[in-house]
Amino acid sequence: MTRSDYSRRNFLGLSAAVGAAGLTAACGGGTSGPPGTEQQGGGGEFTGKYEGPNVALAFWNGFTGGDGPYMKKLVDQFNTEHPNIKVTMTTIRWQDYYQKVPAAVQSGQGPDVGAAHQDNLATLAARRSIQPLDDIAKELKLEESDFIPAVWKGGIYQDKRYGIPLDVHSLAQYWNSDQLSKAGLDAPPANRQEFEQAVSKLKSGGQANPFWMPSLWPAHLIFFSLIWQNGGAPYSEDGQSATFNSQEGVEALTWMVDQIKGGASPKNVAIDTQYNAFKTGRNAGTFDGIWQINDLKATAPKLKWEMAAVPQIFDEKAVWSNGHNFVLMTQRKPDDNKTQAAKVFINYISEKSAEWGNSGMIPARNSARADASFSKLEQAKVATDVESFRFLPAVPGIGDVTFQGIEQAISKATLLQASPKEALDASAGVANKLLEENRKKFGG
């Protein structure tokens, strides 16, 4: 994943893009999707092998950044080891992917296998673009005990499983090692007190604005992390109402604004500016996703930096997270041979998720994270406390609500155009209206 892949429009608009595909939904998650019934399993007990006639599988995903070559390598390995299955991988920018997939499935031209973010599974399921996978998960002998619980449960929508978890990616903190050392600091801050001390020492050492607070991407991810740390939540547990304008949310956003008012950050930090400044040494620290690991190595090879889990600013350990899941697309004419081959493919990649960690991701499987090879990777530092990972509720269209609600509030507050409370209260009204509209659009 690259920075451009995870831009404001590309990421928070993903659920909106699915909705923009033009499909209509009925209550209870039904749609006017492609002909045919929901498909599951098929073909008897799973043996780990495919012994049928030669088949070709189309595998679509959005791994267009530094993660793409690692998935391509795994796909090539699979094809070499399974001569009767030919997997063709097509990469599409995530923003475009979530527009093209529903339309392609509707027309009968969709892929066989796909990847999807955890917070988009509900939207794709409500559109009937993807199939339930309960039987397949059972056949593959995948169990919750081998997965991060929140990730395993995140693949379920309306009591059916739609995703096979592959990985997790979360927000993290990055610091310039040379600047930390110069300020007499030997590690990234772990809590609020240490963060404030680090900023103070860096400023005293001549760094005017050591930590830049963005007004756009990834500001909302910082807010998510902080409101969860403060004991609140952006939405109700059932996803029916916006709760980000609670006192916990106001305090979270106030902390972000205080970094600007207190001089830790300059004003009006545009999208990606804080990250580009970090790569060139113009600031000492930034919050961003673990997907930046490979980008930093490739584009700033001389920069000395350290990564760690987001510091605990409030009372609880929590950090915004998301993840990739394997999905099977709904087909007009189900092909049992392809279904069986797809099981073999998904199982193969899942079992190699420790190797997939080289892409910068955190394996969703506990057994993969316990692999010695994963412990050597940079992101292992933020995977020591998986219980701190937090995810958005499985609600169709949640990305659009976040974009038009939370993100707008954060932007106004961090640009000092409105107080945190005023900004959050105004956006909560917008979000609740959108949530109601989505319930009518998607059903439920």
From TrEMBL:
Task: Enumerate the Pfam families for this protein.
Answer: SBP_bac_1, TAT_signal
Record PROSITE patterns: PROKAR_LIPOPROTEIN, TAT
Highest taxon listed in the record's lineage: Bacteria
Please give the start and end residues of each transmembrane region.
Answer: none
What SUPFAM superfamilies does this protein map onto? Answer: Periplasmic binding protein-like II
**Could you identify this protein by its name?**
ABC transporter, substrate-binding protein (Cluster 1, maltose/g3p/polyamine/iron)
> To which species is this protein native?
uncultured Mycobacteriales bacterium
